[in-house]
Specification:
By secondary structure, the chain is an alpha+beta fold. It is built from 2 helices and 13 strands. The strands form 3 sheets. It has a 7-stranded antiparallel sheet with strand order 4-3-7-12-11-10-9, with no helix packed on it. A 4-stranded mixed sheet has the order 5-2-13-8, with no helix packed on it.
Length: 172
C-alpha cells in the first residue's frame, strides 16, 4: 500500500471517529389541551427542555396553546462522534452514577381551579409520593402533577421518539 493511500485511509478513519453526526432525541411533539367536553383549552404555557449526556446538544423552548388547544415542538437532535459515544458508554460502566443519552422533559402550569384529569385506561396510577400521585401513559411516559401554590405543575418525562407524537391532556 502506498504512503498516499495510507494517509487517505488515516484521514477517513479520523473523520469517521471524530466528526460529529446527528442523533434524533425527540420527534415533533404536539400537546393538545382539552376540557372533558372536548372543547380546546387555550393559553396554557408549556415548557420543553432537553439535555444530553455524552452528546452535544441541549436547550429549552416554550410555547402557549392556541385557540385549538395545541402546542407544537419540533424534533430535537443532538450531535456526537463515534469516539464520544463509545467513551460515554464505557464511562457508565466504570462510574456507577454516570449518565449517557438524552433526557426530555415537558412541563405545563394550570391556574387554580383548573386541574389535569388522569383517567384510566389512558393513565395508570403509580405509587403516590408526597402530596400528589404519579401516573404513566400507554407510551410509558411519566406524569408528575404537583401543587405549586395556586397552580398545578405537571412534568412529563420519558420517550419522545414516537412518530409525530401527540399527547392529549384533559383539564377539568
Amino acid at each position: 500500500m502506498s504512503r498516499r493511500t495510507k494517509i487517505i485511509l488515516l484521514v477517513i478513519a479520523v473523520a469517521v471517529v471524530f466528526v460529529p453526526f446527528p442523533n434524533t432525541i425527540a420527534r415533533r411533539t404536539v400537546i393538545r389541551f382539552v376540557k372533558a367536553s372536548g372543547a380546546p383549552v387555550s393559553g396554557v404555557r408549556v415548557y420543553q427542555s432537553w439535555e444530553t449526556f455524552g452528546l452535544a446538544g441541549g436547550g429549552r423552548d416554550e410555547s402557549v396553546s392556541g385557540t385549538d388547544g395545541a402546542v407544537q415542538f419540533p424534533s430535537r437532535v443532538a450531535y456526537g462522534t463515534v469516539a464520544s459515544r463509545i467513551l460515554g458508554r464505557l464511562f457508565t460502566v466504570v462510574a456507577v452514577h454516570a449518565s449517557y443519552g438524552a433526557q426530555m422533559r415537558v412541563e405545563y402550569y394550570l391556574e387554580s381551579p383548573s386541574r389535569t384529569v388522569f383517567t384510566p385506561p389512558a393513565f395508570k396510577p403509580l405509587e403516590p409520593f408526597a402530596t400528589s400521585g404519579t401516573y404513566r401513559d400507554s407510551t410509558g411516559r411519566y406524569y408528575f402533577p404537583q401543587a405549586d401554590g395556586p397552580q398545578q405543575r405537571v412534568s412529563i418525562t420519558g420517550d419522545f421518539l414516537h412518530d409525530a407524537d401527540s399527547i392529549i391532556i384533559t383539564i377539568e
